[in-house]
Design a protein that fits this description.
- The chain is α+β, with helices and mostly antiparallel strands.
- The chain contains nine helices and 15 strands.
- The strands form three sheets. Strands 4, 5, 6, 7, 8 and 11 form a six-stranded mixed β-sheet that branches. A six-stranded mixed β-sheet has the order 9-15-14-13-12-10. Strands 1-3-2 form a three-stranded antiparallel β-sheet.
- The chain starts with 22 loop residues before the first helix and ends in an 11-residue tail after the last strand.
Length: 352
């Protein structure tokens, strides 16, 4: 049996956001206050310096120096994962219609190298943000760290400037160039943009679609679970059971790109969520201490029960579906639904 990969420490050792090392922080310190006509010499080993320097109004000279030729309209900076601010929350509320409080921020970004890149105006007001959460991933059997892009925001007053010099492009391009690739904190990034956001990103040359997320739905009806199986709530003492289920899942899907679903992930993502109470269930054998699978469900009331996640070998999917439908029936819901990538739809083709 494949052992669960030990990837708690999958991070790059070549990245720091200290001003002496990060090109972005170095430029904020040295290029921002520089007067027009001033000259700078780039620090050694400054990754991606040329692209960043142009965003700070600098132009490369034949002698290797950089000349300040303009004062940029916007300023770019890191948003540290520990630095929740009311200005960020204000921008989030203006963009999404509700407010994210500090506890949610820390749950979401607390384990990431940085929360993202922010773009400010000359008065320091946050106008755009490109964020990402660190996600440990098993990529065809190899553990890597990926960025799950989220909370991409542009102030309503600036949304008409979706150009290569606009605040969205400045934030997104800076994050991608500085944080992604070989030797950087994240090998790849993924996200779930709406169609309009995807069109903008494609037009600006930032990223492309590689898969599609679709919704599956089942009408709830009573299901019979064989007496040899037992379903109970997942407990905080079930760490070894989760580890075993994750190991079996990874072994059964060796060619997939899988978000790692070990105990660390389950506890942080679901059991310790600051505002959502998930229904976490453990399926096992009734007369033998062997876990079969873990289900994570979220109740949406009359809209139905959402099948958020699963941790099990793929051959146990029909049984897990039965458990999920039974739980929906107990809650009085008429519908069970889930999101799945098009590439993994064949796993569900024989489950109505």
């Amino acid at each position: 049996m494949l052992e669960a990969p030990q990837v708690d420490q999958v991070v790059s050792n070549n990245f720091s956001i200290e001003p002496a090392i990060s090109p972005l922080d170095w430029l904020r310190t040295h290029a921002t206050p520089l007067n027009l006509g001033g000259v700078l010499r780039a620090p050694e080993n400054a990754y991606g310096f040329a692209s960043l320097a142009q965003r700070f109004g600098l132009e490369a000279q034949s002698d290797g120096t950089w000349l300040k030729i303009r004062q940029p309209r916007w300023q770019i900076s890191w948003c540290p994962s520990s630095d929740w601010s009311s200005s960020w929350a204000d921008l989030f509320e203006a963009c999404f219609g509700h407010r994210m409080e500090e506890a949610q921020w820390r749950w979401k970004y607390g384990t990431s190298p940085v929360a993202g890149v922010g773009v400010h105006d000359s008065k320091g007001h946050l106008l755009a943000f490109y964020g990402a959460m660190a996600r440990r991933v098993l990529c065809k059997g190899q553990p890597v760290l990926m960025a799950q892009v989220g909370d991409v925001m542009v102030a309503p007053s600036e949304r008409g400037l979706l150009t290569k010099q606009g605040p969205f492009m400045l934030a997104a391009a800076t994050f991608i160039e500085q944080m992604m690739g070989q030797g950087r904190p994240y090998l790849h990034a993924f996200g779930f943009p709406n169609p309009r956001a995807m069109q903008v990103a494609q037009r600006l040359g930032l990223y492309e679609a590689i898969d599609e997320v679709i919704e599956l739905s089942w009408r709830v009806s009573p299901q019979k679970i064989p007496l040899t199986y037992l379903v109970r709530p997942l407990r905080h003492t079930d760490d070894q059971a989760v580890q075993r289920c994750w190991s079996e899942m990874a072994a059964s899907l060796p060619s997939s790109v899988l978000g790692i679903r070990d105990w660390v992930q389950v506890r942080q993502r679901y059991l310790e969520h600051p505002s959502i109470q998930y229904h976490a269930l453990l399926l096992g054998l009734r007369y033998w201490p062997r876990p079969i699978g873990v289900l994570i469900l979220r109740d949406h009331g009359d809209a139905g029960l959402e099948w958020m996640d699963l941790i099990a070998a793929k051959e146990h999917l029909p049984l897990l579906l039965t458990v999920a439908l039974n739980h929906a029936k107990k809650l009085g819901r008429e519908r069970l639904f889930a999101w799945v990538t098009q590439s993994h739809l064949p796993l569900f083709e024989h489950h109505d």
